[in-house]
Amino acid sequence: MKKKQKKKVLIFGAGGMLGKECKRQLSNSAMWYVIGLSERDIDITNYDSLFCAIKKIRPDVVINCAALINIDDCEKDPLRAWMVNAIGPGYIVRALKEAGRRRTVFVHISTSDVFGGRKPRWKEKNIPSPVNAYGWSKLYGEKNIEHEARGSGIRYYIIRTSWLYSEYRPTFIDLVISALRKKKQIPLVTDQRSVPTSARELAAEIEKILLNRNKPGIYHVINHSTGGVSKYQIGTEILRIMNASSHSSGRRFSRYYLTKSSKKDMFKVARPASPVLINTKLPQMRDWRSSLGEYIRRHVKS
Ligand SMILES: NC(=O)c1ccc[n+]([C@@H]2O[C@H](COP(=O)([O-])OP(=O)(O)OC[C@H]3O[C@@H](n4cnc5c(N)ncnc54)[C@H](OP(=O)(O)O)[C@@H]3O)[C@@H](O)[C@H]2O)c1
């Protein structure tokens, strides 16, 4: 019997946190042959190099993890944010069409920050209303993909997610852990809620979407949470997990180092108050506390 050929997956932004998680996840399976390109290899705002890469590699799947994600940097340089987050994703779909890759599946990562209104939680079908340059640029990335893909036959998935963490890059979670261990106070915002999500588990969900051949469109992929949590609540949970994990050593971490703060005091650039995504289309991922507990136990030595 003829051996089944591996599907070729091309990842843009492969040097970033989620790009590395996707590369690890898919490289572990015999199904996929993974090619990861970082910004040093390819700039997604350069149409000609995108077209050449796609023409040469002939991928079956493209995953776009490339983005400018620093909210302050996006506000300072909205043109660059626009090029990377809005124009680049549309260029990828156009390059797929023009390189004759209409059967290639395209996965693009977007964000809960496309929502900025007063609703407490957001479904896939709700109308976005960003509050800053990052949110606007990501929203127009979604729109450009939809526009370029219309009528082309290209199956695309726009995956919105929130507050990612991973061992591949220190995030807010690691800052809290480090502050508690060094006995340093850390201010944590109480008036913004979202859902912390394991980038490792998100990469596994992306693979499931590819394998299940879900209907193309927008998906909300986050760890499970009923109403979202503030960074202060996440800090309290990190403290609980660290104290429970270090039970045998007798070491105790103190709540004293977690101090309450507000968006107004912490951020110069506007942040949405409640970018809490609800997943109404896919099976729920596990509870955020369970994933966070596993991350802390696996990566943080007490
Ligand atoms: N992190 C979060 O909490 C979060 C939450 C919700 C959604 N997301 C979304 O998830 C996706 C991945 O985020 P992440 O946390 O993995 O970000 P990340 O670690 O900053 O990775 C993004 C990567 O994109 C690369 N990049 C930037 N400009 C590029 C360009 N013009 N061409 C090619 N590559 C370029 C960056 O390279 P350099 O490092 O060399 O600049 C970086 O490696 C993004 O779409 C983001 O909007 C993230």
Automatic annotation (TrEMBL):
Domain (RmlD-like substrate binding): residue spans on this chain: 8-298
Keyword list, A-Z: NADP, Oxidoreductase
Native source organism of the sequence: Candidatus Sungbacteria bacterium RIFCSPHIGHO2_01_FULL_47_32
Pathway: Carbohydrate biosynthesis; dTDP-L-rhamnose biosynthesis
EC numbers on record: 1.1.1.133
Function text: Catalyzes the reduction of dTDP-6-deoxy-L-lyxo-4-hexulose to yield dTDP-L-rhamnose.
Coiled coil (residue ranges): none
Protein name: dTDP-4-dehydrorhamnose reductase
Higher taxonomy: Bacteria, Candidatus Sungiibacteriota
